């Protein structure tokens, strides 16, 4: 069995594959492969370790039904057409838990940065705009005792809620497919319907897996139901929000600010008008970008691949 790895991964994962004697090839080109090149290479391999944004859609599975398994270098699996994998009995594995802290750290960082306009003020200094003290300028908001609303309270959402409770004594409300007993017990989190989440959150942070039914769920009409002081945080997927509507909400005092680690498309274009706003902080999808998280992801992905070779169930399988 031969494995194709689409981009280099941290050594911890490579060492594990080597230790198990697995035959793998890492994409030797610096460039992102074209769709045709990618499919052709997958047809010549038995398993795929997918790093990055290749779209594993219905057509991909039709053309690459030879694959015996796919290990993703991500926790999100929205890039994979799971019904196609299921119908061909191709297991798909992800990298849960190991990036929950790092990703929730970025959500927390964005929340604070927006609340205190930190990125914007850094930009002002760089532009030579640090003037004399002004008691009325650059005012942010404090988060003590405010309400954090979490859309999708799983592992990452839990970590975010925990930090916000510990740092600012925030009240936690959440909307999820099901109740999260741990969060209710440990953090006194309250399950609410979606409308309540919108209307009561001072900070609304998305931590859900992305599914098509949630495409642009955060749009003109949902932003309009949020508080004027609300901060919108998205570290999950850019497809959750409508970018034009977010721009409108941020420039018409509908909501107070936004922090994004994800956009649609990625990379975001340099002339995107959101980048010019004083109340919007944007990061280039770095939620899991710590040594600790990326090493953990490399090990999870290698464990998923190893299981295939040992004819075992993937330890982090999303579709079986
Ligand atoms: C994930 O793991 O899903 C992160 O968003 C990186 O893609």
TrEMBL record:
NAD among keywords: yes
GO molecular function annotations of the record: glyoxylate reductase (NADPH) activity; hydroxypyruvate reductase [NAD(P)H] activity; NAD binding
Gene3D superfamilies: NAD(P)-binding Rossmann-like Domain (3.40.50.720)
CDD domains (UniProt xref): GDH
Entry-linked Pfam families: 2-Hacid_dh, 2-Hacid_dh_C
Domain D-isomer specific 2-hydroxyacid dehydrogenase catalytic, chain residue ranges per copy: 3-319
Keywords: NAD, Oxidoreductase
Enzyme Commission number: 1.1.1.79, 1.1.1.81
Residue stretches making up the D-isomer specific 2-hydroxyacid dehydrogenase NAD-binding domain: 110-287
Catalytically driven reaction(s): glycolate + NADP(+) = glyoxylate + NADPH + H(+); (R)-glycerate + NAD(+) = 3-hydroxypyruvate + NADH + H(+); (R)-glycerate + NADP(+) = 3-hydroxypyruvate + NADPH + H(+)
One GO CC term, this protein: cytosol
UniProt similarity note: Belongs to the D-isomer specific 2-hydroxyacid dehydrogenase family. GhrB subfamily.
Protein name, per record: Glyoxylate/hydroxypyruvate reductase B
Organism per entry: Flavobacterium reichenbachii
């Amino acid at each position: 069995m031969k494995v194709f790895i689409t981009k280099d991964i941290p050594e911890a994962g490579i060492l594990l594959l080597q230790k198990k004697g697995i035959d793998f090839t890492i994409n030797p080109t610096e460039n992102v492969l074209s769709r045709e090149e990618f499919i052709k290479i997958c047809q010549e391999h038995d398993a795929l370790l997918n790093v990055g944004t290749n779209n594993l859609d219905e057509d991909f599975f039709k053309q690459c039904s030879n694959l015996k398994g796919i290990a993703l270098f991500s926790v999100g699996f929205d890039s994979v057409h799971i019904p196609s994998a299921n119908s061909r009995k191709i297991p798909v594995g992800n990298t849960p838990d190991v990036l929950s802290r790092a990703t929730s750290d970025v959500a927390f960082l964005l929340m604070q940065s927006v609340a205190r306009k930190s990125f914007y003020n850094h930009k002002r200094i760089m532009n030579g705009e640090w003037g004399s003290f002004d008691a009325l300028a650059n005012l942010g908001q404090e988060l003590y005792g405010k309400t954090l609303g979490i859309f999708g309270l799983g592992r990452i959402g839990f970590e975010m809620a925990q930090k916000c409770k510990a740092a600012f004594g925030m009240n936690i409300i959440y909307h999820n497919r099901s109740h999260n007993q741990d969060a209710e017990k440990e953090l006194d989190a309250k399950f609410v319907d979606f409308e309540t989440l919108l209307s009561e959150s001072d900070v609304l942070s998305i931590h859900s897996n992305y599914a098509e039914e949630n495409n642009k769920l955060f749009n003109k009409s949902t932003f309009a139901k949020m508080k004027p002081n609300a901060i919108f945080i998205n570290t999950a997927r850019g497809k959750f929000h409508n970018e034009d509507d977010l721009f409108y909400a941020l420039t018409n005092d509908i909501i107070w600010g936004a922090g994004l680690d994800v956009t649609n498309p990625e990379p975001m274009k340099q002339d995107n008008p959101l980048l010019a706003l004083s109340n919007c902080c944007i990061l280039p999808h770095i939620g899991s970008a710590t040594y600790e998280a990326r090493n953990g992801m490399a090990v999870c992905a290698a464990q998923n691949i190893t299981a295939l070779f040992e004819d075992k169930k993937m330890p982090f399988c999303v579709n079986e």
